[in-house]
Amino acid sequence: MFNQSTFSAPVIAHYGTPSDGAGRPLVVLFHGRGSNERDIIALAGYLPEGADYLAVRAPIAEGGGYAWFANRGIGRPRAESLRETMDWFAAWLDDYAQDRPVHLIGFSGGAAFAGGLILDRPQRYAGAAILYGTMPFDAGLPVDLDHLAGLPVFVGQGLDDVVIPRELLDRTWHYLTDGSGAMVRAVRMPGGHGISMPVLQELQGWLAGRIS
Asked: Which of 4, 10, 206, 207 shows a CA-CA span of 20 to 30 A to 196?
């Protein structure tokens, strides 16, 4: 059973009525910094049927919302903080989902958290979407050549995003598409720091192919 003393048990928002599991794919959504699970769960209404969708509230209260880790700067997690929250989430997920195939979808700060999870345990996950965010570079996690070999990953970025530093967006793009070994669908579309409809449509198609 889940028993992690650093933070309390996760607050979860479900989309629709959860199934009894039994091998059905699970998609976990992670909100951005300063937001909450109720905001990101709305995204599930645009995603394909055939999976259970839930959103998790980040464990660190910040500015009227919640955060996944303490920062050294925008998009630059403190290694010890990221390790603490990843271990907290992994302990809960292993109890909740057990052997179910799990896809992660993270937006902004949630993208960095999802990226950390797949770097930490790439074999645990069936796929991940990194939306308008960066991988957590220089945070004590391996970013070796072919470290994510064979893992399906979707990357969505806005060409006009000025929230996440451009150097981190570019580094994320180049690592995932040309170095990580992941099976990547990567799209850059006009727009700023928010999920545009063209990117959402690409995500829909990618995820439908994964859970069908």
From this structure: 10
